[in-house]
Design brief:
heterodimer; A: 673 residues; B: 423 residues; alpha/beta; 9-stranded mixed β-sheet; 3-stranded antiparallel β-sheet
Chain lengths: 673, 423
């Protein structure tokens, strides 16, 4: 088989750029060909080359020319879809590198920059394992429980004692035991998300991480799953964001965040097998770990305990089984019934969370680590990281989902097979392709595009890179109808604005408050649906006003910890006039856009003779307030400046620039991408 | 989307039409803008809807306590109404149903016949998905996903008067709920105080920018952004006329400091401002109690306490306006009759809802709850839906808002109303 050597360079390039699945499917083509045309090796080569050439041409020329775009416009469009916003310099870079090359680099991932690493360096919580998080950032209720158990506080002081004293005792207890408030974990987690979005070189990976997190949504609003969410994004979503869909699905199904969020951790059936792990230990753990575990300490105390349900009673919980079909794979019209949901729930019984943190020492035999291959007894319990398959909680017997039989005694493998079946289902290919097209193309993507993507999804075995390549290689991606058709989400707006202005983000959490006010409380969306990805959801009167307010606040330097230097942005040159400033900054902030209407409209407003007076008046007032120390964070004012006049002039022009930039960011044009 | 708002018509400029706005000289646009705040701001009847997201367990909120099947199905969740249970006892409403002990504030309203309960209410669509069930309940078309508008938005349209203000429909949420999607103006705001163009430390610059933004949205935007921009600035102007900062509830009413409590407090303010509020919407979260639901204490108890205390505070605060206000709760479905394996309940079918107002046929438990023997349950597991939510919603909206027709509210529904409102 020397034909690999015939075209070594191209094939190497080809192989380097392909995922394993594609290579093997390519090899399949060859094998099949050889089977039917034994001896005709060249035929096989031709098939490969044909496939290669087709892909190569798809890959090497995105069809933007046919859509009548210039290369700059095409680069700007591509960047508007796969980055959190681009400057004119970045657009030029991508154009020079070649759009296709940039896209392939982004799909593969590029080395991260030192600046981001340095910025993330101060966040010590985001690298912790789930077990370490549970130890170090315990939920409030658990801190109280532990403090009582260890005698650091008296249980009656919770309701009766001096509140301040109680809080201090609790704080001391936390300090002594090196415990940190859980809110700090979330603050770090959200901050890292914002910093990565602003500064990462791997913009496509960040956006795909965002997409899949929203697709497999879990929520900080649910206390049981909240502490596991940082690791969920880090270990499950981000590494799988451009891999195989099926792998991602399986990884989410096994993650503590999802197991708690959609309750599968608690779902149990009637086992048909000998119990090999003591059920009582799990019961105790789950009940103790529950958010309401201390509730009986309140009013209900002293009341005779109500009958507990029998331990052996089946605790089937359908929540995950339903959502995995409705929201993660098939879609609501994907062709399943309530019966399928119940049966799938049975298949997934026993999928739960391995005891973590202080609960590590559960009595009983240790659970063997996951062994692959024949070594593992079918249906046995095992542990894989934080995941635990508890065979004694798994429903025995045969289960039927979408006509396929699972079991009776395959245990964990039944669930894996179920998820594989769902990942491969044609409804899933269509559902995921539609969702990707809505995210990256338009709120109403063309059916022809979804069909192409669905076929690529099916053919590649759910290879996300392949689906994305297919999407970007399709004329529908570049059509005039979809340019700037998407409305930026509040997160995209805020991150994009910060990137446009080259802001130095020292306090990322400040941006989070603004993004929340604009209607997107990241990581707190309660429903498993995730945020709806469409303009109508984002644009309403209250949210729109806050978008404008955000633009003004950012440009005026009024967001603490977000530093901007508008003059530096213009090479430290002072714009000659308002209209000059308008043209310069609009071109920077809205590259490759048709700006005439905005500039035409804004120019007379900003040039009104009374405006400068008003602005001057206002900034003088602001400056005097600042001198009295009553203002929060203010614009840096040049203290060295000699004479009131120069200072006033400078403040005035800063104010003018801030107005111009603020209005541009709040403008209708900037809300689109 | 011709004439999305009423102002063009009312301003006598209907001939100009929305279609020409883009090319209209700015002096004319300004002239119209100057006319924006005009007569229709006046007192209206207000319907306040509270969506309990996550599916409230109606059988725990209002329990058929004499039902032995229920007691058996819920060994860890069942509560009785016997006096011997003390403060944990249900409030016996009629010898058959008992109100959850954490909802004691509702008891007097029920006795005064201002509060009605509909039990066994739900959707004809048997989906047990939160998303779908909420979507169907809010769109008002339980078998059609594609309905673009929400039923409350359509209710605004049926009010039958031209004078619609930006505050005709207000949602105290950060984003517009599905119920209010549609062609009639609806405002979503999480805090009415923040409503406007603000810039800390330089409000004068903000005021100037406000005008710039307004013109920019009017003249360079199109579609959704243009409409929303217009509505935003109208609403801002209206609110600026009132002092929302120093609001003091009447009658010593104390709102719980919760999302729902704060929302209802702001709705009360809007009602008292006479801004033309007709439909107010807000929501209450956390009803998806799969796990350790609790009984007299616990997560469910906290939820119903918040719900009832917020509504009672709202009602007392509005004592002078009670004839003009009706409050209705709704939830996407109920929960399983049996407790699940984790002392919670899973997604079921029917639940109950509460309607409060002076024209409500109160002091009654409407609807039909059968004995909870397995053979009486839907799919052998759930409280059956015996009253279509559309029967109740349409009656309450039509009666309170004096709608002439209700066929557009729930276009696919042909059933009968059940008399939850006084004729």
């Amino acid at each position: 088989m020397n034909w690999f050597n015939l075209f070594p360079d191209r094939l190497n390039h080809f192989l380097l750029n392909r995922s394993e699945g594609e290579i093997s499917s390519c090899a399949m083509v060859i094998l099949t060909t050889r089977k039917f045309f034994a001896g005709l090796v060249m035929a096989g080569v031709l098939v490969v080359l044909a496939a290669f050439t087709e892909r190569r041409s798809e890959q090497s020329s995105f069809p933007w020319q046919k859509a009548g775009l210039t290369e700059q416009q095409a680069a700007a469009h591509l960047l508007s879809r796969f980055t959190y916003g681009a400057t004119p310099e970045q657009i030029e870079q991508v154009r020079r590198a070649g759009l296709e090359n940039w896209f392939e680099d982004q799909l593969r991932g590029v080395p991260e920059n030192e600046d981001l690493k340095r910025r993330l360096g101060s966040f010590d919580a985001i690298a912790l394992s789930n077990a370490a998080v549970v130890q170090r950032y315990p939920r409030n209720a658990r801190v109280v429980r532990m403090a009582i158990a260890e005698g650091a506080i008296h249980k009656d002081s919770i309701r009766t004692g001096d509140r301040a004293a109680y809080r201090e005792m609790l704080q001391n207890y936390m300090k002594q035991n090196d415990l940190r408030p859980q809110q700090e974990l979330f603050r770090q987690f959200i901050s890292q998300k914002i910093l990565r979005a602003v500064y990462s070189e791997n913009q496509l990976q960040e956006i795909m991480t965002d997409f899949w997190f929203n697709h497999f949504n879990v929520s900080l609003t649910k206390p049981q799953c909240a502490e596991f969410i940082p690791a969920y994004e880090r270990d499950v979503i981000r590494p799988g964001a451009t891999g195989k869909f099926g792998d991602l699905l399986l990884a989410t199904a096994k993650s503590p965040a999802m197991l708690y969020y959609l309750d599968n951790f608690s779902s149990s059936g009637t086992p048909k097998m000998e119990s090999e792990f003591p059920q009582t230990a799990y019961r105790r753990k789950f009940v103790r770990n529950a958010p309401n575990a201390v509730k009986t300490k309140g009013k209900g105390r002293g009341k005779p305990k109500q009958a507990k349900p029998k331990k052996k009673a089946a605790g089937l919980n359908e929540n995950y089984a339903r959502e995995v079909m409705e929201l993660h794979t098939l879609g609501v019209d994907g062709g399943y019934t309530q019966k399928d949901v119940t049966e799938a729930a049975k298949v997934l019984t026993g999928w739960t969370v391995s005891p973590l943190g202080q609960y590590q020492n559960v009595k009983g035999r240790p659970v063997p680590a996951l062994r692959t291959g024949a070594a593992m007894r079918p249906g046995a319990s095992f542990r894989d990281g934080d995941f635990l398959f508890a065979a004694n909680r798994h429903e025995g017997g045969v289960k039927t989902v979408l006509g396929k039989k699972f079991g009776p005694n395959a245990g964990y493998d039944e669930g894996v097979e179920l998820l594989e079946m769902l990942a491969r289902h044609p409804s899933t290919a269509k559902f995921i392709s539609t969702k990707l097209a809505i995210r990256f193309v338009s709120d109403q993507p063309e059916k022809s595009l979804i069909d192409k993507m669905s076929r690529a999804f099916a053919k590649s075995g759910g290879d996300i890179r392949t689906v994305l390549r297919t999407m970007v290689s399709a004329p529908e991606f570049w059509s005039a109808a979809v340019l700037r058709e998407k409305t930026k989400s509040p997160f995209e707006l805020a991150i994009g604005a910060v990137r446009s202005l080259h802001a130095d983000v020292q306090q990322p959490y400040q941006l989070f408050s603004w993004i929340t006010r604009m209607g997107e409380r990241k990581y707190y969306y309660q429903a498993p649906t995730g945020f709806p990805d469409q303009a109508q959801y984002w644009i309403n009167t209250g949210a729109l006003l806050n978008r404008m307010n955000f633009g003004l606040a950012l440009a005026a330097g009024k967001i603490p910890g977000i530093q901007i230097d508008l003059r530096k942005l213009n090479g430290n040159r002072e714009p000659e006039s308002v209209s000059n400033a308008l043209a310069l900054y609009a071109a920077r902030i809205l590259p490759e856009r048709e700006l005439t209407p905005i500039i035409k409209k804004l120019e007379p407003m900003l040039s009104q003779p009374d405006l400068l007076n008003k602005v001057e008046e206002a900034s003088a007032k602001a400056a005097s307030r600042e001198a009295q120390g009553t203002m929060g964070t203010a614009m840096p004012i040049n203290k060295v400046s000699s004479g009131k006049h120069r200072m006033a002039a400078k403040a005035q022009s800063t104010d003018m620039l801030a107005q111009v930039v603020g209005v541009i960011i709040g403008s209708p044009e900037y809300q689109k991408r | 989307m011709l004439s999305r708002r009423g102002f063009l018509k009312a301003g006598g400029l209907s001939l100009v039409g929305v279609g020409l706005m883009g090319g209209m000289p700015s002096f004319l646009a300004d002239a119209i803008a100057g006319e924006k705040i005009w007569l229709p701001y006046k007192k209206r009847k207000t319907l306040v809807c509270i969506f309990q997201r996550g599916a409230m367990d109606g059988l725990m909120a209002v329990t058929p306590f004499a039902d032995a099947y229920l007691q058996k199905a819920r060994p860890a969740l069942f509560m009785g109404a016997a006096k011997s249970e003390g403060s944990n006892a249900l409030f016996d409403l009629d010898g058959r149903f008992g109100l959850h002990p954490a909802m004691q504030g509702f008891a007097p309203l029920f006795r005064e016949h201002r509060l009605a309960i509909v039990h066994g209410i739900g959707s004809p669509n048997t989906t047990r998905s939160h998303f779908d069930a909420q979507d169907y309940m809010e769109s008002g078309t339980p078998f059609k996903k594609g309905t673009a508008s929400g039923w409350l938005n359509r209710a605004i349209g049926e009010a039958g008067h031209e004078a619609i203000t930006p505050f005709s429909a207000v949602s105290l949420t950060s984003a517009l709920p599905r119920s209010l999607y549609g062609s009639h103006p609806a405002v979503a705001v999480s805090d009415i105080q923040d409503f406007g163009i603000r810039l800390r430390g330089n409000q004068q610059a903000a005021n100037k920018s406000s005008k710039n933004f307004e013109d920019l949205y009017e003249q360079t935007a199109s579609g959704l952004l243009q409409h929303t921009g217009r509505e935003s600035f109208e609403a801002v102007k209206m609110l600026q006329k009132n002092d929302t900062r120093n609001y003091k509830p009447a009658n010593g009413a104390v709102y719980p400091n919760t999302v729902l409590g704060r929302a209802l407090k702001q709705i009360a303010q809007l009602i008292k401002m006479d801004v033309g509020l007709e439909v107010a919407f807000t929501e209450s979260n956390g009803w998806d109690t799969h796990f350790n639901q609790g009984t007299a204490n616990g997560v469910f108890a906290r939820n119903v306490a918040d719900l009832s205390n917020s509504i009672v505070a709202f009602w007392n605060d509005l004592s002078a306006y009670q004839d003009d206000v009706t409050v209705m709760t709704m939830t996407e479905f109920g929960r399983t009759v049996h407790q699940n394996g984790t002392n919670g309940t899973d997604h079921g079918r029917a639940s109950c809802n509460f309607i409060l107002g002076n024209d409500v046929n109160g002091g009654k438990i409407h609807g039909n709850v059968p004995e909870l023997a397995k053979e009486n349950l839907e799919d052998g597991r759930d409280l059956p839906v015996t009253t279509d939510f559309r029967a109740v919603f349409s009656e309450v909206a039509a009666r309170h808002l004096a709608l002439k027709k209700t066929d557009k509210l729930f276009p696919d529904w042909t059933g009968k109303q059940i008399g939850v409102m006084n004729v």
